[in-house]
Amino acid sequence: MSIRRFALAALASALIAGPALAADTLLNVSYDPTRELYVEFNDAFNKHWQAQGHEPIKIQQSHGGSGKQARAVIDGLRADVVTLALAGDIDELHRLGKLIPEDWQTRLPDASTPYTSTIVFLVRKGNPKGIKDWDDLIKTGVEVITPNPKTSGGARWNFLAAWAYAQQKYGTEEQAQEFVGTLYKNVPVLDTGARGSTVTFVNNGIGDVLLAWENEAFLALKEQGGEDFEIIAPSLSILAEPPVAVVDKNVERKGTRALAEAYLNYLYSEEGQRIAAKNFYRPRNEAVAAEFKDQFPALKLVTIDGDFGGWKAAQPKFFNDGGVFDQIYQAE
Amino acid sequence: MSRRTSSVIPGFGLTLGYTLVYLSLLVLIPLGALFLKTTELSWAQFIAIVSAPRVLAALKLSFGTAFAAAVLNGVIGTLLAWVLVRYRFPGRKIIEAMIDLPFALPTAVAGIALTALYAPNGPIGQFATELGFKIAYSPLGITLALTFVTLPFVVRTIQPVLADIPREVEEAAACLGARPLQVVRHVLLPALLPAWLTGFALAFARGVGEYGSVIFIAGNMPMKTEILPLLIMVKLDQYDYAGATAIGVLMLVVSFVLLLFINLLQRRIARS
Question: Domain ABC transmembrane type-1: where (chain B) (predicted)?
Answer without folding.
Answer: 59-262
